[in-house]
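G., before I forget:
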Amino acid sequence: MALRLYNTITRRIEPFVPLAPPRVTIYTCGPTVWTYAHLGNFRTFLNQDLLRRYLEYLGYDVFQIMNLTDVDDRIIAEARKAGKTISEHTQPFAEAFFEDRDYLGMQPAHVYPRATGAVESMVRLVQDLLDRGVAYRAEDQSVYFAVEKFEGYGRLSQLDKRELKVGARVESDEYSKENLRDFALWKASTPADEAVGAAWDAPFGRGRPGWHLECSAMALEELRSRFGIATLDIHAGGVDLIFPHHENEIAQSEAVTGQPFSRLWMHGEFLTVEGTKMSKRYGNFLTVRDLREEGVDPAAVRMLFFQTHYRKQFNFSDASLAAAGKGAERIGELHQRLLATVGGTLGGEPGEAGALLERDVGRALDEDLNAPNALAAVSNFVTTANRALDGGEWSPAEAAGNLQILGRVTEVFGILPRRPAEDPELARWVEGKIAERQKARSAGDFSSSDAIRDELAAAGIVLEDTPQGARWKQRGS
RNA sequence: GGCGCCGUAGCCAAGUGGUAAGGCGGAGGUCUGCAAAACCUCUAUUCGGCAGUUCGAAUCUGCCCGGCGCCUCCA
């Protein structure tokens, strides 16, 4: 059993072999902080989070880099509109991104380099490319990458098989390029850029970095300074980044290093809404803050996203989110039940059910991160465990061992529903009500006991009568 | 126009040559004072359509129908 992943560059599922195990370096293209990231963006990030967690589960020592793009056309336009500098404009959105990340329970990347903080290394990279003759300064004072000078350009996106749509890439400000496919490394500064603080000095002229430059510069910077290498193990992003973004990153980086920029390229598919790609452009987007305001449990979101394979589009709907939430709750219920069964038992030895769970989840995730299949295994385990618990078939030790495995596995997905924070005051009130109800029940006064249950329900408290007395929990909220 | 992806039950979704995972929903049952939670049984003779290859196809090939994406600094 070994992990296999789909590699965009070979279009095949292949064994995952890191450059220097147990270390695994991952670069994930992060958000452009011109506004709030939407759920579609987070689908990609969440799938990367799953990859990260599974690699760590397998024992790899992961180093993850996620960039924040904090200078680009949209940011400059928005900053201008608001009369702010770009950093004034992006700061709140960067903070919001981290809040959303934490809310969704994503593992933080090890570093979050920002484009504006890496201008120096970007300038060096451009200079290097100029020195090597694969880049040139055009009449408009911008610096472009000469695509024809880089052998193998277009390998990732299979450009050789395509024909350009007539008129597709011809824009007024690109007339200076020698070749239509050449792309900007450094854009000569304009008054608009200067007005919002988006211009830097460089030997080849004052300007700002092109979009693709930052990822190459920052990734190489981190790899070189920390590990003395120039090749990533995994580079991940959304499918829309295959071309031109990642294609250009490869060209820029490899033209300088002569080494593969990344051994593996992973691309996640889109989230759609009513069949159409979720996008700011179409206005059909939802943000994480929207969900938070509705009181959605992040476990439901994770469950929903992981129920579809990352390389397949899937359509978001409130109904499917609610259904996924129910599924996550069922797993959470069992988790609680096992905790109660285990009591203070330490250690424990996993039984057959736990071993099966671990094996099936591993098999599924090993095959290109087949999370849907892995979750099916979890679900089967839940049924098996509940049945065993109903029949009193598990000793505390066996329950403890199985619980440990369930915990390890669900940790990979991060799908255990959040338990409401302990509120002593609320707890005291609820316990009081439960005692009151119990008294009524013992006396056979069921209309009173039901009234109390209704009262609690109205407060969002759900009761479950068990042989050990009433359990309670907060619903939804 | 070029390149690519998808179409599986009421809904969501695995499965890519050997006879349809899983979740949600629904029906009935067990347990319960009634519930809740859990469990049990049932819920696709069939995988967009039509041909073909094969002992055998949801899985391979061809055509058709329907939907989506990239080629636009969009995850």
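The two ends of chain A are 42 Å apart (CA to CA). Residues 166-174 of chain A have pLDDT under 50 and may be disordered.

More on Monday.
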